[in-house]
Design goal:
This protein has 216 residues and is of the alpha/beta class. It is built from 8 helices and 5 strands. The structure holds thymidine-5'-phosphate (TMP).
Length: 216
């Protein structure tokens, strides 16, 4: 695959979406084709599934139903947006991806890790992030920030300990895969966070252009 897939992850209110816009602007200025997208979402069908997943509802959603809906949205998104962009050589910046499923449906909903991973692999069909940047923030702080900007989706109704488990899961993932995943302190100022992200992405771009030179 000619392009690169960079995913941003973190708990609620971690500032991913703001950073992704800033990163996209910077990378475009550097002359790259950038595709900025998000999960769940990114295609008309996947955005409809997002609406189904986000809306607070009286009925409790079965964890397995939730997992399958996230994966259904992902299969559509990978096939129609991410894979074609990577084949063209674009840099794809994706707001959440497979690690959110491991953290939220695995650690949060306590679904078996292997089942979550198996479905992650099925839905992504051979596509995996080249780099994952996790914005780490104490759960209370993140939830407060999310509430301040008016967010009231279904996950926001969960307990503090649910969100604490999500944070620990992201921290564990970063420890397990230090080559792919870099964790950045979300308590830093937005400017400092941006600098840290840019530094890591610059290193990836350098490695990528060296490996392309070698193979040509
Ligand atoms: P956000 O994009 O505004 O952060 O909202 C997406 C919500 O969906 C967030 O609460 C995390 C959740 N989510 C999962 O639970 N599993 C997933 O696989 C993904 C992509 C998101």
């Amino acid at each position: 695959m000619k392009g690169l897939l960079i995913t941003l992850e973190g708990g609620e209110g971690s500032g991913k979406s703001t950073q992704i816009q800033l990163l996209a602007r910077w990378l475009k200025e550097e002359g790259h084709e950038v595709v900025c997208t998000r999960e769940p979402g990114g295609t008309p069908l996947a955005e409809e599934i997002r609406d189904l997943l986000m809306v607070p509802r009286a009925e409790t959603v079965a964890p397995l139903a939730e997992l399958l809906l996230y994966q259904a949205a992902r299969a559509q998104h990978v096939r129609d947006v991410i894979r074609p962009a990577l084949q063209r050589g674009a840099l794809v910046l994706c707001d959440r991806f497979v690690d959110s499923t491991s953290a939220y449906q695995g650690a949060g909903r306590t679904l078996p890790e292997e089942a979550v991973m198996e479905l992650n692999r099925l839905a992504t069909d051979g596509i995996w992030p080249d780099l994952t940047l996790i914005l780490d923030l104490p759960e209370q702080e993140g939830l407060q920030r999310a509430r301040n900007r008016g967010s009231d989706d279904r996950m926001m109704e969960e307990t503090l300990s649910f969100h604490r488990n999500i944070r620990s899961a992201f921290q564990r993932l970063a420890q397990e895969e230090p080559d792919r995943i870099t964790m950045v302190d979300g308590c830093l100022s937005p400017e400092e966070v941006l600098e840290a992200l840019k530094e890591r992405i610059s290193a990836l771009l350098q490695e990528h252009s060296l490996s392309q030179e070698r193979s040509s």
